[in-house]
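ERR on first pass: missing label on line 2. Operator R.T. fixed the label and resubmitted. Corrected input:
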Amino acid sequence: MILRRKLRYILIESSEDMDIGTASSLALNGLMRFLGEEQYANANPRLIRQYGSRMYALRVNRGTERRAVLGLAFVRSAADSAGLYTIKTSGSMHSISEYASKELHRHSNLERGQKGPLDKG
Amino acid sequence: MAYTDLVLMQQTSIELAKRLGYSRIFTSSDISIARKQSVRKCIFIGSEKGRLDHAIRDSSVIGIVLEDSIESKSVIEHAASEGKPIFLIATHLTSAATQARLRSIYRMRRLFGFARHARASIGIISLASEPAELLSSMQMLEIAKMLGADEPYAKEMLEVLSGAYDT
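pass 2 clean. output:
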């Protein structure tokens, strides 16, 4: 019998464009610093997919996602120019991909001007 | 559920606010951060007891921030009796260098404990001055829990700003 690993997926967004390699080292180094080696090993975080230029899927072991979300709040790039926001957590990669696709679609519609310009909040 | 945040930026988009899990992100043009009396709706930030007491009585002040997380029992009790929220600033934790951050976490946890014990209303805001400092509502909830709040109270903390703004 093959034991199935129970995983959680976190959709994260960076405040500026970066490739998955840069985002991965930023997120994983930040998590290592925040969680410490033992909890990092428990969480076993991996940045597994990029959506568009700013959204990524992070995979962690189930039960460690809350610590990962907290850890990501403390992540800053070397020049403090980029931070990471957690958008959504889910138990399936499918719902993360679906949500990210919707967001990208909405964003491209906005850029094409099908909706109004971004309003002031 | 009406999670809101306050940032020091001039402008944010509604799309971003929704993606981050907020119903609205207030900017400094909606609510100012003041160190002295203001005619506009503001959050007063200070460390002097007299000024803080004066601010708590001021109707334009919708909440106070205790600078450096000072634990002034009388100010906290005064705020609790007047129903003025005390706001904790998340970026003071997330954007600080490591040593300063550890100290800030300790002091903010103590302030949270005192304020909760005094039954004061406690809110949490990011006060981000640039996009890199922004935090999603999910991250803010986890920060509130790190400071000692349980899940329902952490959610309430994110709703305090909208409640104070509407009154």
